[in-house]
Design brief:
The protein folds into three domains: 133 residues; 106 residues, Immunoglobulin-like, CATH 2.60.40.1220; 97 residues, Immunoglobulin-like (Sandwich), CATH 2.60.40.1930. The chain is 1% helix and 51% strand. The chain is built from one helix and 27 strands. A hairpin with a 2-residue loop joins strand 24 and strand 25. The protein is rod-shaped and about 110 Å long. The N and C termini lie far apart (94 Å). The N terminus is likely disordered.
Amino acid sequence: MKNAIILSLALVFFGAGVCEAQCDTINSSILCPVPNMSYTSCEDQYIDILLWTDSTIIDTCQVYITIDDGINPPFHLDSPSYNVNFTFLSGGDSVLVDVFGFTWHENETTRIFIDSAFTSDGCKTVFECECDFIVDLSPPYALGIHPSNGSIMDSTTITFGADVFDAGAGVAYDSAASSGWNTTTLFWLINDLPYEDSIVGGTWATRTFEPGDSIVCCLNMVDDIRFESGCTCPANISDTCWWFKINPDLNVPIKNNLPERFSLTAYPNPFNSSCEITAPAGTDVKIYDLRGNIVFTNAVGARSPRPMQKGAETVSLQNGTRTFIWTPDKSISSGVYLVKAFEQTNSVVCTKRIVYLK
């Protein structure tokens, strides 16, 4: 029956080493952390190593361990000691060896060697078993955030996000790949509504918004550290958020599929004194502010166009359209206004967004 020793140190590795024995052969397999040369976010990471022979019992008082933390000179760890604990399993046929209580150095490669051990019959077996790992305690960070925080954008189609960096394990972009825990994700919300969309595994997006929209973006950044429950710690995570706004005074035509004779035009737009508006013949025209208040009405039938309110002057009626000039009076403030044309049934035929600048 195989006699096993599980050696628990604090960190990463996957591997099985075959021990070339002077007496009986000693085999080894590192159980935690895995794989070899991987990153861990545990500053006090422990290590599990399984040692076994084919016929004899390993003497737990004579297992020779060397630790090289990349900072101090390599040192030998006596067994048993404060940092090593042996527990016999399966009626003494296997032993769990825990090595613990160390604080490792960030971004330094730690190497742990087991090069020899004695069996219970007094035979010394020389073999090679090595566990390497790197501690990464720093989360990823964002650079080049766009748009910059608090920006007012003069376009409705915006590319937004940031580049994400990590000095150690790297950035996790695919939770199914190596992180086993989470993945970097870009979220955003519009006008304080719940997050309507996200880019999982990405840090950039391009979307089209409406004038006046306020957008809050957040990056949940995860580094690419493998998480093994009961062995290693979760990946390092950080968040960064910023906001930008779409200029509410943008002139964005409202799209429709109406033929040209059922469309509204306004020139110039934006304007600062008067605006020439062309609407379908036979329609009533009303102008609204963004709160829904009517600031101007021009109710004109197809046969007898005439101004219905101060500030308007009918110019012509031809080719199925009518044109008038709107000159806002002093009570009208600068801003964005909606021009709507209504049929006699009071249904909206078409809408135009205009900008008045005093």
